[in-house]
Amino acid sequence: MKKLLAIIIILLNIFPLTMAKKVLAEEAVVSQSGRIKKNYLKKNYIDQRDYYLKNYLSEKSSPLTPFSKIFIASADKYNIDWRLVAAITGVESSFGKRVPYGSYNAYGWANGKYNFKSWEDSIEHVSRALREKYYNKGADDIEKIARRYAPPSSTWAWKVKYFMEKIDSAPIQFELQS
């Protein structure tokens, strides 16, 4: 009976692993210098990013919680760290809780005066702009982004890094990939 019970327990632990699908995953880490770098993992990997982001936003009672997959998809599309835009919302609007009514502007975009059409539109717009108007123009780490995004703040960059690490505590190397 003990052997049968042991076999059942082993099978129950192994079965979920056989259901996992292969994913080419990215692991992003923030270093002391605040540079983002993605490490591509070419092995079986279960992408946990949505789980981490959704749980973190939920803990903050964020109206952005249902859009965790959109944050990740936009980050992947524009090749930026998947935590970056969500972390910016933490600094600028307490994760979307303090925004001008109907603006969907959780990013302090245009000093909070810009109105987006929807949360999805805002996530896409900010992700694209970070790639095209910041990184592609030389702002290739959080401190350089901060100088343009939130001048003259001396705390914006470390706050963004703080929230990125809270979303997923994996080490962060901030070197956006071209």
Automatic annotation (TrEMBL):
InterPro entries: Lysozyme-like_dom_sf. SUPFAM superfamilies: Lysozyme-like. This is Uncharacterized protein. It comes from Candidatus Woesebacteria bacterium RIFCSPLOWO2_01_FULL_39_10b.
